[in-house]
Amino acid sequence: MAVTIRDVAREARVSVASVSRALNGSPAVTDETRQRIASIAARLRYVPHSAARSLITKRTQTVGALLPDLYGEFFSELIRGIDLAARSKGLHLLVSSSHGDTNEAAAALRAMQGRVDGMLILSPHVDAAFLRANLPEAVPAVLLNSALKGAQHDVLNIDNYGGAYAMTRHLLDAGHASVAFIGGPEDNFDAQQRERGYREAMAAFAPKAAVKVATGDFGEESGYRAGRAFAKSADRPRAVFAANDMMAVGCLRAFAESGLRVPDDVALAGFDDIPIARYVTPSLTTVHVRIADLGRSALERLATAIEKPGRALHGAAPMLACEVVVRASSGGKTSGRTTAKRA
Amino acid sequence: MAVTIRDVAREARVSVASVSRALNGSPAVTDETRQRIASIAARLRYVPHSAARSLITKRTQTVGALLPDLYGEFFSELIRGIDLAARSKGLHLLVSSSHGDTNEAAAALRAMQGRVDGMLILSPHVDAAFLRANLPEAVPAVLLNSALKGAQHDVLNIDNYGGAYAMTRHLLDAGHASVAFIGGPEDNFDAQQRERGYREAMAAFAPKAAVKVATGDFGEESGYRAGRAFAKSADRPRAVFAANDMMAVGCLRAFAESGLRVPDDVALAGFDDIPIARYVTPSLTTVHVRIADLGRSALERLATAIEKPGRALHGAAPMLACEVVVRASSGGKTSGRTTAKRA
DNA sequence: CTGAAAGCGCTTACAG
DNA sequence: CTGAAAGCGCTTACAG
What we know:
The structure is a homodimer. By secondary structure, the first copy, chain A, is an alpha/beta fold. Chain A folds into three domains: 5-57, lambda repressor-like DNA-binding domains (434 Repressor (Amino-terminal Domain)), CATH 1.10.260; 62-159 and 291-319, Rossmann fold; 160-290 and 323-339, Rossmann fold. Helix content of chain A is 42%, strand content 17%. Chain A has helices at residues 5-12, 16-23, 31-43, 50-57, 73-88, 102-112, 128-134, 160-173, 189-205, 220-232, 245-257, 291-307, and strands at residues 62-68, 92-99, 118-121, 141-144, 154-158, 179-182, 212-214, 239-242, 267-269, 286-289, 319-320, 322-326, 336-339. In chain A, α7 links the parallel β3 and β4 (141-144). Chains A and B meet through α4, α5, β2 and α6 of A and α4, α5, β2 and α6 of B. The first copy, chain A, binds a DNA duplex through α2 and α4.
């Protein structure tokens, strides 16, 4: 049915070896033959059979992306960054998302075995033991936003700490004497880093102010509950920094219901810069993460790891900088973006 | 390096043929041997080499998704639906997005050649001529949201017409005597269908009312401009139906700046139900599309086409129903969801 | 029920 | 510079 290398060879009156060499740019072929073969291949619409090629070259020209159960903007931005970088490297992208637990993640990882030259992994279910059990050592991998330590694996993280530190500083600079925090899930790596950023910035710039942390779970409702509690409390904070935007949105609703004006009575800030952030009233000051850049960088690191398997992974995991985006909810005088520098 | 079928065969003291049969569930093998082989394969962590298998079976167990340059929620929801359905069918998912023009789309399509058993295609750049030139007839494909007619290709569409028709009817039912429309890009298939739904509902339920259509491009700014024009016009419409939510959001801003109260002075509705819709003030009445369902259905149709290549495609392209989601901006008495029935 | 052998479509030493 | 041949790791008629 489909046209194979033999058809091209017959038509060009050469051996299949010559066709292979001509089409793969081997120097051991005259320009004239190369031209002739190329034009015949084009006329026949010859496409090399990728499975046959993979079988012999041990390369699939494909990378896999393992992602957790997911919603919204973050995912599409990440994939977009990965996809763009993959195309420019000539790599295909196999995705597997929507695995809600460790077993599903393991199954997905194994299912990709042999179909990809390397893996991009973003999953809360993945730790060192998981990788040892499910990822062959020979398969290069880059982990995104992972707490994993050690030189075993290549890790690429968002600078959650730096972003939270900068935001806390911004709120204090804007003149809000006390800043409270709404934390995320306890076992969540991003949430932990953001809380640490808040705490350390408070210690550095407002050592006498009380550190107040409400518990949340990244969901809108948990932000709402925290907001209600803050609104009622005797010593209401002058500013609230939520560990993500969805909680900030919930908190905003609670403040509105309590008759508190934002930012006049209480300032508010979030983290992530989801699209909703600019459309709530007042618009939400938040920390922007260049997610597509994260995807692109991750893919490029992976491509390097695939090309140079022996390369040692040295030093700390690189961090992707975040930007404080000042909108109306934080009540500062300034407005705009500033890149969060690490402390 | 990697363990192959020969390693399993040697360990089990059988031929590779028997290992293949045992692992693939051929009936021509005793249960006892099957058990023994299976346990040895598991112990050795044997994973069949997918390229080798593809080479002989002519199947890749992979489907490709070709998507245009994209942002936001729609894409992630669609991929989620496709991915879930693919996993349950045992299929892998290769994605290619971010191609901004016809040439890039063609390159992406050809690059997937031979790597997939079928294709899911959503692209404004794809028409009949494009497919004839770039998609081999033997490759099953399902087109999403395409204006393509004829029995050549399998098409799956969102019922834009029915949704717009139902929304227009809802606005009229809510007591708004005149409903204006903000259209999308002229060459956009979704936009055309939505406008048709508006026009036909107006003709059916408010035959004496004026049909007013402002031009837009699906961008927030174009909705803003239309909103300003409506606000100023002598016979201001009582309700505005924007062909998508982003334009409705822009229109809402224009109304707010003009001192018009929504919905008291003018009602407003959009289309898509993007996440922002529920967070603007007032919350936006809109048409909800179950995008994940679209992805799931498309994949299931594709899987069927792959399994039964000869099957004839008969009748009209199936439609995915939409729901009118009533929120505050339309000012009706009722609130909630109703599935849009086709007229 | 089991095995030996052919063959899927490529690439790449090895000769010449 | 070019070709004949081996081989990548599987599956599947074909014998037995």
